[in-house]
Amino acid sequence: MKRFILTSAFTAAIIAGTAGAAYASQYVAYEGQGFSGRSVVISACGVSNIPYHGSYKWYGDGQSGRMYNQPNGQGVAHFTLASDRNAEQRSPVGWKSIFIVC
């Protein structure tokens, strides 16, 4: 009986965590132009450094993204990606970090 209860609680926690993550804005940074090469998805709240600068896609799903030309969100935000619109750029990007507002 205990095994069933623990398994059910664990499964419920995974489903709840996954459901919450499904509605987060995402910044996808690509190594190459035209969305090519390696990529990384950034969706965590707060500041994240951007490792690739070849191109990007933004999926606005509730949170806006403040873009910085310096690492670690230093300096003044250069641009803000909308919380309710998608965006993309096929050519190189100068942004070095993002602050996702949650």
From TrEMBL:
Tell me the Gene3D superfamilies matching this sequence. 2.60.20.30
One matching Pfam family is: MiAMP1
Q: Which residues form the signal peptide?
A: 1-21
Which keywords accompany this UniProt record?
Signal
Q: What is this protein called?
A: MiAMP1 family antimicrobial peptide
